[in-house]
Amino acid sequence: MTGKAKPKKHTAKELAAKLDAATTNRGGGKAGLSDRSGHDKGGHAKLECPLCKVTAPDIKSMQIHHDARHPKIPFDESKLNNLHASTVADTSKPKPGIRGSLKK
């Protein structure tokens, strides 16, 4: 006799979610290092701090970083390095879906 409310088999939705989580690059580890750094194809990091070379995805995150790490230097938006401006994204590749997978 089995326990209460315990399914005996995995559902198709659960198996698909496990497959998606296992095969989609979420940006972690060595595979996501180039994506996080922003040097190849722009990546997630859009802005780079001119003082310490830390990257951030948007201006608000960069301002939070600057206020925390460089409080004595005034924040100047024009001095930030825009990593997406120097690289052009390849438009021939298909774009990922909602959660980053290429589902059909």
From TrEMBL:
GO CC aspect terms: cytoplasm; nucleus
Composition-biased stretches (Basic residues): 1-11
Subcellular location: Cytoplasm; Nucleus
Stretches for region Disordered: 1-44, 84-104
UniProtKB keywords: Cytoplasm, Nucleus
Protein's UniProt name: Uncharacterized protein
